[in-house]
Amino acid sequence: MKKLWQCTDGTALLEMIIIAPVALSLMIGGIDFAMGFSTYATAAKSVRNAARYLGSLPPEVGCPIGFSNTAKNLAVTGQMTGGSPLIPGWSTSDITVDCTAGVVTVFAQFTYTSLILASFVPLSASYTLHTQHAERQVGA
């Protein structure tokens, strides 16, 4: 029995069995968090650009439908007209524009679907994220 207790054959395999799942789950979690953060940063930047576009319009113009639709398209696609969404599944109906008292506020809601967690936990693979930006309407 003493000989079996002092045997070191297979200790590396045992350590690998203990450490590998922990290390793998930490790596997967880090990658998934980075992908979600990148998606959120893209949406926040797009919403900020749309609010700045509307804020650059003269205050007497207000916030007419045509300019609001252009701003929504700018937020979703990064272009004034046309284009594909910067975030998969994002549409202009997910953007809300409010122009009151010389302040333009653009609010966005979008769904982030975890590609990595979807394969392990299908029930909690989608998260609804929100971002907004307010900009004074200074005009040109």
3D architecture notes:
By secondary structure, the protein is an alpha+beta fold. 48% of the residues lie in helices and 20% in strands. It is rod-shaped. The N and C termini lie far apart (88 Å).
Q: Quick one: how many beta strands?
A: 3
- Summarize the main sheet: 3 strands, antiparallel
Structural class by helix and strand composition: alpha+beta
Order of helices and strands: HHHEEHE
Q: Strand content of the residues, in percent?
A: 15-25%
Unreliable sequence segments? none
**Whole-number mean pLDDT:** 86
Number of helices: 4
Terminal CA distance reads: 88 Å
Rg over CA atoms, rounded to whole Å, is: 24 Å
Specify the overall morphology: rod-shaped
Count of separate structural domains: 1
Helix content: 40-55%
**Strands across the major sheet, in which order?**
1-2-3
Quick recap:
The protein has 140 residues and is of the alpha+beta class. It contains four helices and three strands; from the N terminus they run αααββαβ. Helix content is 48%, strand content 20%.
Topology:
Layout: H1 2-6, H2 11-55, H3 65-77, E1 95-100, E2 103-113, H4 117-120, E3 126-136
Helix pairs in contact: 2-3
